[in-house]
Structures are given as C-alpha cells and as structure tokens.
Write a structure and sequence with these properties.
single chain, alpha+beta, four-stranded antiparallel sheet, 5 helices, globular
C-alpha cells in the first residue's frame, strides 16, 4: 500500500465514526447571537466556544468588555466541557457541605463555580462548551443558557 491509499483508508474510518464537531462557522454564529442578546441587555461580554476536548474554537470580545472577562469566559467554557455540566449547576454542588466542595481548587484552578458556562450537547454527548462573562452572574447565566438553546435549535452538528 502506498501513502495515498493509507490516507484514504484512515479518512474513511474516521468519517464513519459519526463524531460531531463544532465548526468555526457554528462558533461564530453562536457568538454573534449571544452578542446581540448581550447588547439588548446592556452587557459587554466575552464569549468563548470550546470543542469536546476542551480546546478553544473561538473567543469573541465585545468592545470595552472587562479585561478579566476573557479569562473567566475561557474557564467557564472549559469547566462546562470538563465536568459536562453548567457552571451554575456546579455552583450548588461546590458549596460547603456539597458533593464537590473544593473542586475549584483542582485542574490548576481552571474550574469556575459560578454561572455563565454551559455544555453544548447533542444526543446526550457533550460536543463543546460555551462560556460568557461580562455581566452579573444572572446575566452571564442567562446569556449562556440562551446560547445553548440557540445551538440546540440551529445546528445540525455536522
């Protein structure tokens, strides 16, 4: 077998796995919708979209967003993928006496335990995560939940 034949076989096998991926185009679409909603409610947000391996696909910073919001949105998206749950759900579990108390001290401090991070799920599989930061916890949570709903409705998950 030559190199070309091997590449074709590998491409065929990988293509048959049916693994869904968040594309850059989908990430951009999602970030634009979240930004539109953020403008409506007066929030200057940073929006991060991660893939299923907790790697960034895209990060969007609205003009004049807080500098700190970049890292916070980034880590919210990471947390949503890494733990396969929303960061607002994790908040309740990580309080003193909770089942995951202290979890924010793991993963080199990358775990966020307040709202604004949502996993992006299709057929029960986490395909990525969305992190939003720039407003209050309630605003960030609402924007992330909105983005999750937009993804669910708009994407065929190619």
């Amino acid at each position: 077998m030559d190199k070309r034949q091997i590449e074709q076989i590998v491409a065929s096998v990988v293509g048959q796995t049916g693994e869904k991926r968040i594309t850059l185009e989908q990430a951009k679409f999602l970030m634009e919708r979240v930004e539109e909603r953020a403008k409506e409610i007066g929030v200057k947000a940073v929006v991060a979209v991660f893939d299923s391996g907790a790697n960034p696909v895209a990060v969007h910073c609205m003009e004049d967003a807080f500098l700190a919001s970049y890292d916070i949105a980034f880590q919210k998206a990471y947390t949503a993928v890494a733990l396969k749950m929303s960061t607002i759900q994790l908040k309740g579990l990580s309080q003193p006496g909770g089942a995951l108390y202290g979890i924010q001290n793991t993963n080199q401090g990358r775990i966020v335990i307040f709202g604004g991070g949502e996993p992006l799920v299709h057929n029960g599989r986490v395909l990525g995560g969305l992190g939003v930061s720039g407003g209050t916890e309630e605003q960030d949570t609402a924007l992330a939940e909105y983005g999750k709903q937009i993804a669910k409705e708009a994407f065929s998950w190619q």
